[in-house]
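Usage

Read records sequentially. Each one opens with the input sequence:
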Amino acid sequence: MLEQAVFESGAHSAGSAALLQRLSEMVFVDGARRYVNALPPGSEGWLGALRDRHVGRAIALLHGDPAQAWTLEELGRRVGLSRSALHERFVALTGLAPMQYLANWRMQCGARLLREAPTSVAAIALEVGYDSEAAFSRAFKRATGLPPGAWRRAQAASNAGQRGDAT
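and closes with the structure output:
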């Protein structure tokens, strides 16, 4: 893959940019997979949790659809564990309860959207699984110390300052 990437970077032919992007994704995924597979059994943390068949599947489900109204019962049903077994296993491997992990993931998704998309806070709230802008704003402020709009403005100002765009 690396040899192909080197060739494509110098070729500048039709489709080279697309191939380079896909090759870089493949190299990253392969490296991450090799790292996860090399972790000792029982490794804790997010990457260690991915090795666990049930917890890894639960994380994939949460990441795949953070807006879904997940319950521990539904998540457990989808991964083939009881609610209590999933909770216990998830906490042991990640250090967080599944719904706490989901709340953190929703905040990360919301922060990314606030930073990258010119979407309203209300639309972002719905996209990351909150029923209302107010509920999202409360959770976001609890997590970051700032309401979403103020956080977005602070991020934009910080990025402008780093680029030298500040007036």
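Summary fields computed downstream for this record:
- The two ends are 45 Å apart (CA to CA).
- The first helix runs from residue 2 to 11.
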